[in-house]
Design goal:
- Helices cover 14% and strands 23% of the residues.
- The protein is α+β, with helices and mostly antiparallel strands.
- Among the domains are: 215 residues, no CATH class; 173 residues, Trefoil (Acidic Fibroblast Growth Factor, subunit A).
- Strand 27 and strand 28 form a beta hairpin.
- The longest helix is centred in the first third of the chain and has 82 residues.
- The protein is elongated and about 145 Å long.
- The relative contact order is 0.11.
- Keywords: Membrane, Transmembrane, Transmembrane helix.
């Protein structure tokens, strides 16, 4: 001690003074005491500094490790969501094991709670046993807890609802994961009290719901059914008397792609003037009366020549306009000869631009790019009027909803807040809210409708202000007294190069087929939102340019799920007259959501119900706007669900004016009977049948239920026997059906997407057909490869 620097300093400064006061021995004692006091004071100071540093370090370490545990929980939740999403089934998002926080046996397992959330309880980050004497920040006691909830929209946006039922998961769009990090969560074991989490984190996950589609079969040109949406003149009314809608035409020449080419060989007179030839087994639809629709290969504001707008080497684009031209045309106004139009040929260089799919979600898409949808005009004030509001264009498709979408079989039965219809209306990206969904009744009608806001104020107020529903779109149902507006797709008048296509003139106005045959370009337009919907001409003989009676050879969502029987070649539905005495096929009545145009003919033509007594129930309609007893296409049967397509016996029945009637074979014809015992029992084969002539057929007595379109042949012999141009329905030898060009067609296939090889069932040419496969909505891995957002939350945070 005496040799230390501290002692030397004290001795030099104080020893002489102390020695004078207390003597040598006293001075030495006091010096020693002072030395000890200085050392103790210094040690206390150092200790306090060390303690001040050690305690925060301990807490910071525990905090950091709890944060690490919470982050580990978010990673576990992310893995769970990705795996469940990639599995393709919404039900995988909710585990089957029921949660129980008190059961240690259920630790480290994803479980479900009564509220429809997911719980992953007490996952140890490092193995170890927790007890009261364990150091609180020891890694062996790190653990986390995860909770996951599902939402039908952005959980941080207004108007979004949490999904609390398994059935509601079909509409899931987002998930919220909360993870809690613990240190020594159970200090006294599972029976003791639980400590609070030190760190909590929240993350939002976005599901990518994408439609996985199988390529649709390319429609053949058989029977005049090649992907056509519009006629130059209506074929089934008085126009056939003064317009050449039906003609007898000799077999044409064919190009190398097996398309009709060159001059159309009319047997009698002109193909562009005069009336139709009398309908006979040899009659076919005049190709000048048929149209094709082409997507422009660039965005067009002002019309150009057809070749400038439609490049055969190009593809449909976002923003493409849609050009309508005849399938056969005159090269000049003075030319009496009519030639098949190159741009309308089903096979060859333009097929990527002229082949369309009226898909099973009620959208219209180019088969070459199924991510694009025909899009109408929105409900902005400038579009609430008559005439054409804007050219229809191709835009990226929104999210599909409907009875054919996976997980939405209850689309028409579950109309509550957690049902698909309400989710569709609350989804800003649904095809409905993007004006891409189209019903069909004598023409394409927007699946949405627009009510005057004052008539549906309360219903509209329930929707987020950013949604069109908040302005009266698709809420409240069709109203009385002209308070509901509709939108249709229609063909414009002819357009000259240089004309601004934003200002198209309304359709139906080709003066006659001869005028239409000049190959002048017309565009597909979306009408303004109007109370009469510009569709009066669809129901009378006054309109030449009728949009009626064609739907691109397909039937949208119509099929078994909607109690309809759709023919594969025409896309027409098995139909009967109002009294049930006549059976044929016709364009299907395609509804969507809470709007069935078939129920509101008077409203569509500008004469809606004026009072409640004007509304009544019919077979198809819960509330019909005095729709007269009209032919309908209701048809039910027992589907063959076998895995090998081995066949199922079934009757086919329908409701006619409230009475159940059954189809029965009478010779080779089909008619209805009230007597179930007299009804024919068919054998229904699904698309999995081993024999391709059986696939998708209804058979009885060794024959198949067959649609016969004008010009079609059975066993090589012209077989059409009606006089009104409507497709006939009869029994015929299976595999014997061809069109007037002797190409095998799928007119015996119903409610099935059947692929044939090039030979067809009877060794003919290219196959027909047009139903276009199926839509299966699956959950693809998120494009974000992680969470959309994440943040730390307070340990006591209780919301989502």
């Amino acid at each position: 001690m005496k040799h230390s620097q501290l002692w030397a300093t004290l001795n030099k400064r104080y020893r002489a003074r102390l020695n004078a006061c207390v003597g040598e021995q006293g001075a030495a004692m006091l010096m020693a005491i002072m030395f000890v006091m200085v050392v103790l004071a210094t040690s206390a100071l150092v200790l306090s500094i060390l303690l001040a540093q050690a305690l925060p370090y301990k807490n910071n370490r525990a905090n950091a490790q709890a944060g690490y545990a919470a982050e580990s929980g978010l990673e576990a939740a992310l893995s769970f969501l990705r795996e469940a999403e990639a599995g393709g089934s919404a039900s995988a998002l909710l585990p089957t094991i029921v949660a129980d926080k008190g059961a240690a046996a259920k630790d480290e397992q994803f479980t479900k709670t009564a509220g429809g959330t997911v719980l992953l309880n007490n996952v140890a980050v490092n193995a170890g046993t927790a007890n009261a004497s364990t150091i609180a920040y020891a890694p062996a006691n790190m653990s986390y807890k995860v909770e996951i909830a599902y939402f039908d929209g952005d959980p941080d946006a207004s108007g979004t609802n949490q999904i609390t039922t398994t059935s509601g998961l079909s509409g899931v769009k987002y998930a919220v994961a909360k993870s809690y990090g613990y240190i020594n969560r159970y200090p006294n074991g599972r029976t003791g009290s639980e400590s609070n989490p030190l760190r909590s984190m929240r993350a939002v996950y976005k599901f990518e719901q994408q439609s996985s589609v199988t390529p649709p079969p390319t429609p053949s040109g058989g029977g005049g059914r090649v992907g056509m949406g519009f006629y130059a003149a209506a074929p089934y009314n008085g126009r056939m008397d003064n317009q050449p809608t039906w003609k007898i035409i000799a077999k044409p020449d064919f190009d190398t792609d097996k398309n009709p080419t060159g001059e159309v060989k009319y047997a009698n007179g002109s193909g562009t003037s005069g009336g139709s030839d009398p309908i006979s087994p040899s009659s076919v639809m005049n190709p000048v009366n048929q149209t094709c629709m082409l997507a422009t290969t660039k965005v067009v504001d002002k019309a150009e020549t057809l070749d400038q707008m439609v490049d055969p080497t190009g593809m449909p684009q976002v923003g493409s306009a849609l050009v309508i031209i005849p399938q056969a045309h005159k090269t000049s106004s003075s030319d009496n000869a009519v030639r098949y139009t190159e741009q309308c040929k089903a096979n060859g260089t333009y097929s990527k631009l002229n082949t369309w799919v009226y898909w099973t979600d009620n959208t219209i898409r180019p088969s070459s790019d199924m991510s694009l949808c025909v899009t109408g005009a929105d409900i902005s004030s400038s579009n609430i009027r008559g005439g054409i509001a804007a050219p229809a264009t191709l835009q990226k498709c929104g999210t599909s909803y409907g009875v054919n979408i996976a997980g939405q079989a209850d689309y028409y039965t579950n109309t509550g807040d957690d049902g698909p219809q309400q989710k569709e209306k609350r989804d800003p990206n649904s095809t409905l809210n993007l004006y891409q969904k189209w019903a069909f009744y004598n023409g394409f009608i927007n699946a949405g409708y627009l009510n005057e806001l004052s008539s549906v104020q309360d219903q509209a107020a329930a929707y987020d202000g950013s949604l069109p529903e908040s302005q009266g779109f698709s809420v409240g149902g069709v109203q009385k007294q002209k308070k509901t507006r509709f939108q249709v797709l229609e063909v414009s008048t002819s357009v000259n190069p240089g004309q601004d296509i934003r200002y198209l003139s309304g359709g139906h106005w080709a003066s006659n087929i001869d005028d239409f045959a000049n190959l002048q370009v017309r565009f597909l337009g979306a009408s303004g939102w109007n109370t009469s919907a510009d569709v009066t001409a669809w129901f009378d003989v006054a309109g030449d340019m009728e949009n009626a009676t064609a739907s691109f050879g397909q039937a949208g969502e119509a099929g078994a799920a909607t109690q309809q029987l759709v023919n594969e070649t025409s896309g027409f539905c098995l139909s009967t007259s109002a009294d049930g005495t006549d059976t044929y096929t016709d364009t299907c009545h395609v509804k969507s959501g809470d709007f069935n145009p078939y129920c509101y003919k008077k409203a569509l033509t500008g004469n809606p119900a004026q009072q409640d007594s004007d509304l009544h129930v019919t077979d198809y309609c819960s509330a019909a706007d005095h729709n007269e007893a009209a032919p309908d296409d209701h048809a039910e049967y027992d589907e063959n669900t076998s895995t090998d397509g081995s066949g199922t016996p079934t009757k086919i029945w329908k409701s006619v004016n409230g009475a159940k009637k059954y189809f029965v074979i009478d010779g080779d014809k089909i008619k209805l009977t009230d007597n179930e015992g007299a009804a024919t029992t068919f054998t229904r084969y699904n698309a999995k049948a081993a024999n391709k002539s059986d696939k998708g057929t209804f058979q009885a007595n060794g024959q198949c239920l067959t649609e016969v379109y004008p010009g079609d042949k059975i066993g090589g012999v012209s077989a059409y026997a009606r006089t009104d141009g409507k497709p006939d329905v009869r029994m015929a030898a299976c595999g014997s059906s061809t069109d007037y060009l002797d190409r095998s067609i799928k007119s015996q296939v119903w409610n099935a997407a059947v692929q044939w090889d090039s030979s067809g069932p009877s060794g003919g040419g290219s196959s027909g057909g047009s139903s276009g496969g199926t839509v299966v909505t699956t959950h693809e891995a998120s494009q974000y490869k992680g969470y959309v957002t994440s943040k730390e939350i307070g340990a006591t945070y209780t919301g989502w």
